[in-house]
Amino acid sequence: MANEPEFQQAYKELASTLENSSLFEKNPEYKKALAVSSIPERVIQFRVTWENDKGECMVNTGYRVQFNSALGPYKGGLRFHPTVNLSILKFLGFEQIFKNALTGLQMGGGKGGADFDPKGKSDNEVRKFCVAFMGELNKHIGANTDVPAGDIGVSPREIGWMFGAYRKNQNKWEGVLTGKGGAWGGSLIRPEATGYGLIYYVQHMIEYASGGKESFKGKKVAISGSGNVAQYAALKAIELGATIVSLSDSKGSLIATDDEGITPELVNKIVDIKHQRKQLTELSESDKFKWVDGARPWKECGKVDIALPCATQNEVSEDEAQALVDCGAKFIAEGSNMGCTQEAISVFEKNRKEKKGEAIWYAPGKAANAGGVAVSGLEMAQNSSRIKWSSEEVDEKLKGIMTDCFKNCLETAKEYVTPAEGEFPSLVAGANIAGFAKVAAAMRDQGDWWSQ
Predict the structure, then answer these.
(1) Is-above-0.90 flag for pTM?
(2) Which residues pair with residue 48 across a beta bridge?
(3) Is the pLDDT reported for residue 1 higher than 60?
(4) What CATH number matches the domain at 39-178, 3.40.50.10860, 2.60.40.150, 3.40.640.10, 3.30.450.40?
(5) Which of 90, 111, 180, 236 is catalytic?
(6) Which of 99, 105, 274, 319 could disulfide-link to 377, CB 3.0 to 4.6 Å?
């Protein structure tokens, strides 16, 4: 664990929350469940050899971390990015266990991918890599065993190529991957689900904090990232009356300089740019925006009401967290996984305790961004039944799941970390405790751990 900083961070964040609650006092045997659940059931690491357009043999490392199957088949994305390593995949898989538990659906937790960089590769090279990757992974997954999805670097296109390779290798059609094309087993609303679910969750935070008097209407929202999650979070927030003041990518941030903010038309342009694997700098020459090179948006937007990190892990630092507090932001919710550093979370939680009803309120990714995997679970259900639900049906189910998730986090926080008078309940504590307790109970019932 010492050489796995991302996993260590995720583990410590969960463990410290559990230890600072009354969970272990009421259920001392759950300490053993924490020790057992922190070790993956299985880690698969394999070589991927593939041929580039010059006919050269290329080699990458592929992984699948099958972390916990107590609640259902392993479920979690595949990430193709040069930074992929075992620490990052273990952190993502560990978070996924408890996120999936919070959806209320029958899904375990896992994560996988490869240190392959799709950027700069031809379509033919990406396809060849996907086929080679699935040539090994197909031996370890299945509709009732492990159901991967997409993640960074893995869009519906890559899911299609991998699904085709699985079907040919296994000689069977089954719902082994989610995020599939709509004509061959995919669910409607799946591309939108993480972003939409994030907004639905924050909507409940706003309503609770304001006693039902406020909504997204009139709120200024800073968003980081410009991929799938950021795009659909922006579109849904705009639909609900908010003004989006930023989007970003790895090169810097696009900051709106007029009252209109980022429009749906601009978001659609960004979708096209992303499909072409280009950078946001393509849009920076406009009197409606300014481009801030090499910066994240949190210190660049001025006063905002809501901050939504939607890019990658650890994208809100301690000083950026303080900047958001100082500018009067009232809500921050992670569209990305572990979007805030532990130091940033400490800033938000300290402010929550000190400022009571005037504080910023923080929601962790394992709750706030659970909408994506929730609709993946709904896709699995549709595949198992050989049926297809309408967009309206899926969206209603997604809204219901995010409502239940918020209520679960809220009530669990009240039960195990009693808030002081006038203080918002700790959603990070509620999410960690609710997700962990559900998994721990299932593991106990199945004999994965036991107490004297």
Answers:
(1) yes
(2) 60
(3) no
(4) 3.40.50.10860
(5) 111
(6) 105
